[in-house]
Amino acid sequence: MTVTPLFELDDEQKALQETIREFAESEIAPHAAEWDEHHTFPIDVIRKLGELGAMGVVFPEEYGGLGAGAIAQAVVIEELARIDSSVAITVGASVSLGGEPLLLFGTEEQKQRFLVPLAQGMTLGAFASTEPGGGSDIQAATTTARRDNGAWVINGTKAFITNAGTELSAFCIATARTQLDNGTKLSAFIIPNGTPGYEPQKPYRKLGWHASDTRELVFHDCRVPGDAVLGDLGKGARVFLTPLDGGRVGVAAMSVGLAQGALEQAMAYAKERVAFGAPIARQQAISFKLAELKTRIEAARLLTYRAAALKEAGQPFTEAAAAAKLFASEVAVRAAEENLQIHGGFGYIEESAVPRFYRDAKILTIGEGTSEILKHVIARKMGLSE
Ligand SMILES: Cc1cc2nc3c(=O)[nH]c(=O)nc-3n(C[C@H](O)[C@H](O)[C@H](O)COP(=O)(O)OP(=O)(O)OC[C@H]3O[C@@H](n4cnc5c(N)ncnc54)[C@H](O)[C@@H]3O)c2cc1C
Predict the structure, then answer these.
(1) Which residues, 6 or more positions from 293, have their beta carbon under 8 angstroms from its beta carbon?
(2) pLDDT for 303-316, tens place per residue?
(3) CA-to-CA distance for 97 and 126, rounded, in angstroms?
(4) Is residue 197 part of a domain?
(5) Which whole number is the average pLDDT over 217-222?
(6) Backbone angles phi, psi at 271, to 5 degrees
(7) Domain, as residue range, for 363
(8) Staple 347 to which of 68, 279, 354, 379, CB 3.0 to 4.6 Å?
(9) Distance CA 13, CA 359 (A)
(10) Cα(248) to centroid(ligand 1), Å
């Protein structure tokens, strides 16, 4: 009797996986430590990934993409994060936070102007929701957009925004409070880089993701035309939250990739490091850690591909995406920590990828919905809360 595996990548997805894996091993791995040490944004590699089609995997061909679907997108992000999380988040954020809101809510003109170059890998996009006063509670935003002679004038500050300040950054989509007849509501605006009054600040110094671009954005009387609104006026929360489900699948895929990379590093070291006359992999305490990690990573990968498959099939996937991100991000943190523990003192020295993976893992339980917020999402879907 032949049993069909619960989940297997098709030939096209496997070919893409192979291409990105080879690229990551040859073009990213040799430089990742240096970019991390010097906080260098790897612009040439991001350009090359764009040429390979990595920024357009999920977007339809008519908008410059490959039309290869959400599972293929997850595979690309996973393969990048297996080697370097900074590169993975640069691609992932541009696709899910910059491109997906345009695909879902943009007018044809907005798609042609902003989505097509992004999907073709020529530009990067950003979404600015978080503010210094709050990230999880998006309705607490205090940035304002006021009407003025048919235009909008934006004032406020956004915090921790990915991809807004690089040479390739073309626009950010920002939420701001607008005064409407039915009260003050969040709306979303597309703000091209270079617009007077839109001022990306200098990059933060972060615990991890050193080679990714994260900045505070200041809007000071920033004037954009009337047609800069993305989606319906007063529906900015939807413009942010709907694509965020896809973003969570992306962060889950990053988590699987980072955990896989950490497991491979730990296995290689455990087979080679001798203590008490034998490789430490022979110690059950070590081999059990590795066996447990492998099992958790496979479970995380299945949850991630399942959420991506639901998205691809056009079915509801909010809960599946939250569950995948919640589980996979915690597996990644654990894998990074066990990898360091297995490397002993060498794991604490910045001469291998081990401490970089450790530092890069923690943000996965915070960005695009903290673990606590994801539990709220799942509990709500279970009918346990409003
Ligand atoms: C490197 C990096 C890149 C980022 N990129 C972007 C980006 O591109 N765009 C963007 O808009 N944002 C971005 N963010 C922001 C990120 O999404 C937020 O940091 C995150 O959503 C959490 O918001 P916060 O930091 O304000 O924490 P808070 O919302 O203040 O939460 C603080 C703590 O309280 C907990 N908490 C809050 N509310 C509840 C509740 N109701 N129940 C239980 N616990 C709760 C949280 O889980 C957390 O542990 C980025 C952040 C970082 C660090």
Answers:
(1) 259, 262, 263, 266, 331, 334, 335, 338
(2) 999 999 999 999 99
(3) 6
(4) yes
(5) 98
(6) -75, -25
(7) 238-381
(8) 354
(9) 30
(10) 13
Quickly count: other Cβ atoms within 10 Å of residue 177's Cβ.
Answer: 20
Q: Which residue type occupies 28?
A: I
**pLDDT tens digit string along 96-153?**
999 999 999 999 999 999 999 999 999 999 999 999 999 999 999 999 999 999 999 9
Q: Of the candidates 123, 151, 169, which is a domain's last residue?
A: 123
Q: Which two tokens stand for residue 54?
A: 């990595």
- Asked if residue 111 belongs to a domain, the reply is yes
Half-sphere exposure (CA, 13 Å, Cβ side) for 59?
A: 30
Residue 23 lies in a domain: yes
Residues 106 and 137 both lie in one domain: no
Q: How far apart are CA 380 and CA 386, in angstroms?
A: 6
Nearest Cα to Cα of residue 57 among 108, 101, 6, 12 = 12
Give how far Cα 328 sits from Cα of 232, 336, 344, Å: 34, 12, 24
Q: Within this chain, do residues 48 and 118 fall inside the same structural domain, yes or no? A: yes
Pocket test for ligand 1, best of 136, 175, 378 (most atoms within 8 A of CB): 136
d(CA 371, CA 376): 9
User: Does 316 map to a domain?
Assistant: yes
Is 298 an annotated catalytic residue? no
CATH number where 342 lies: 1.20.140.10
User: Apex CA 233: angle with CA 184 and CA 108, to 5°?
Assistant: 165
Model confidence pLDDT, tens digit, residues 262-301? 999 999 999 999 999 999 999 999 999 999 999 999 999 9
Pocket (CB within 6 angstroms of ligand 1): 93, 97, 126-130, 134-136, 160-162, 206, 209, 214, 363, 366-368, 370, 372-373
Number of domains forming the structure of the chain: 3
User: Which tokens sit at 173?
Assistant: 């989509």
The DSSP line for 121-178 is TS-EEEEE--BTTBSS-GGG---EEEEETTEEEEEEEEEEEETSSSTTEEEEEEEEEE
Q: 160 and 202: one domain? A: yes
Question: Helices (DSSP H) in the chain: which residue ranges?
Answer: 11-23, 32-38, 43-52, 70-83, 85-93, 100-105, 108-110, 116-119, 236-272, 284-312, 318-342, 354-361, 371-381
Which residue type sits at 89? I
Of 182, 206, 234, the position where a domain reaches its end is 234
